[in-house]
Amino acid sequence: MDATSAHVASILKVAWARSLGIGDRDLAPGRSHVALASDARSLTFLSVFGESVFLGPEWAVERARDLSDEQLGSERGMLSIAKDRGARRARAETLLFTPDYLPPPPMHPSEAPLISRDREMVNEVVRACPPDDVEAAELSEHSEWFTLLDNEMRPVSCAAYEEWQGFVANMTSLTIPEARQRGYSKTVSLIATNVALDAGLVPQWRAHRTNANAWHLAEALGYDKFGTLATVELG
Fold first, then answer.
1. pLDDT (tens digit, 9 = 90+) per residue, 159-201?
2. Using only C-alpha atoms, what is the Rg of the chain?
3. The pLDDT value given to residue 2
4. Residue 28 in 3-state DSSP?
5. Is the predicted pLDDT of residue 110 greater than 70, yes or no?
6. Which terminus of the chain, N or C, has fewer Cβ atoms within 10 Å?
7. Pairing mode of beta strands 202-208, 168-175
8. What whole-number distance in Å separates Cα of residue 202 and Cα of residue 230?
């Protein structure tokens, strides 16, 4: 890992430690276990840059000690810990980031994409997409939107980010069904990523394990996998 990537890695580790309410040293090689109050309503496993931590009540911590990081990073593994505790809504995410600006594709100035920052253009993209895709993208929970318009001035793809923990940009993207597989999502996501970097933020993509499109898009853009987040709620 070069100096730039190492610096960005340290930023992401601090951001994640803060988000979980733990100390920086709780993220360490060999896996740390943090015992929460007995009435805690969720379990969390985080692995970033080869360092990991599990958070849950003492009974869950004891069960987690017998599982590998790979098992804890899966929905099945997290559910197995709390199967007799009303476990529900398990979620596993792949975490990706980029420390560098993404190179734009070569194009003539006349081919430059037309981008709108208007919220109504975002709403039009949302209305044209299936509910499951809308829920996965969570565009409404972000604050900076970039919507790509086609030659007929129709909004066809939107990328967005929200500032997280003060120095990270959580990225997302959504494209209307009839405009997919045309490179629109990659184009607008590249623009959003570089704007986030201009703002001094570290772009981070959180792709649900079942959302292969998001994962593949991030990798195609040049994002690198750096970790896994898995959670489960207790009934």
1. 999 999 999 999 999 999 999 999 999 999 999 999 999 999 9
2. 19
3. 80
4. strand
5. no
6. C
7. parallel
8. 21
Assigned token pair, 63: 């069960």
Of 165, 164, 156, which Cα lies nearest the Cα of 186?
Answer: 156
Selection from 31, 142, 42, 125 nearest residue 85 by Cα:
42
Question: Under a CB-based contact definition with an 8 Å cutoff, are residues 139 and 145 in contact?
Answer: yes
Closest Cα to residue 158, out of 194, 132, 121? 121
Q: State the Cα–Cα distance between residues 125 and 116, nearest whole angstrom.
A: 12
The three-class DSSP label of residue 131 is helix
What are the E-state strand segments in the chain?
32-36, 42-48, 51-57, 87-97, 114-116, 144-149, 155-164, 168-175, 202-208, 224-234
Phi, psi of 22 (to 5 degrees): -120, 170
Mean pLDDT calculated for residue range 52-78: 96
Report the C-alpha gap between 198 and 184 in whole angstroms.
21
> Terminal CA-to-CA distance of the chain, rounded, Å?
42
HSE-up of residue 36 (Cα within 13 Å, Cβ side):
16
pLDDT at 108 over 60: no
Residue 89's alpha-carbon distances to 52, 60, 200, 221, in angstroms, are: 22, 16, 34, 30
